[in-house]
Amino acid sequence: MEMTFFFSDRLVLLFDFWSVHSPTGLLLSVLVILLLSVLYEVVKMGKAKVLQRALLAVPPSFSQEALLGPDEGDSGDGGHRDSEDSSVQEREAAQGRWFRYHVGQTLLHVVQVVVGYTLMLAVMSYNAWILLGVVAGSAIGYFVVYPLLWVTSHPTQ
């Protein structure tokens, strides 16, 4: 096995059954790796979008209180039962929204880690074409996905 980067159309990529023996096979393999790199960038930006939505879903007045619980010095409405009940309901709703977003972010993180390590192992084949596929896919993914994140977070007037 090579321990330096090389240009070749013959390699075994990730698994024994992914054995490349032709320029066409190499081209298809580089395309698959490129698409995995784009997916990595999409998932990374998806995590940022979920975080952004989570911060918008939990009102600032409830963010610490809802997520961490009420403080001992929590000043209510002088003991009015109705306002306390609505405050508790709002707090529970904020906790539920936060938890759903947290689960979504966790799942996206797991996907990002799996795809990222897969790409790392592909690069460790030391095939320069595969490395170029990862770099190109990362650049394309970032170029395409980042503006979508910015546009949705900064709507025009």
Describe, in plain words, how this protein is organized in 3D:
GO terms for molecular function: copper ion transmembrane transporter activity. This is Copper transport protein. Pfam families: Ctr. Residues 77-87 have a biased composition (Basic and acidic residues). The protein is an all-alpha fold. It has one domain. The protein is 72% helix and 3% strand. It is built from 4 helices and 2 strands, in the order ββαααα. It has helices at 23-57, 60-68, 81-123, 128-153, and strands spanning 11-12, 19-20. It has a two-stranded antiparallel ribbon with strand order 1-2. Strand 1 (11-12) and strand 2 form a beta hairpin. Helix 1 (23-57) runs parallel beside helix 4 (128-153) and helix 2 crosses helix 3. The chain is elongated. 17% of the residues are buried. The mean pLDDT is 83.
Order of helices and strands: EEHHHH
Shape: elongated
Helical coverage, percent range = over 70%
Strand content: under 5%
Strand order of the largest sheet: 1-2
How would you summarize what this structure contains?
The chain is mainly alpha-helical and 157 residues long.
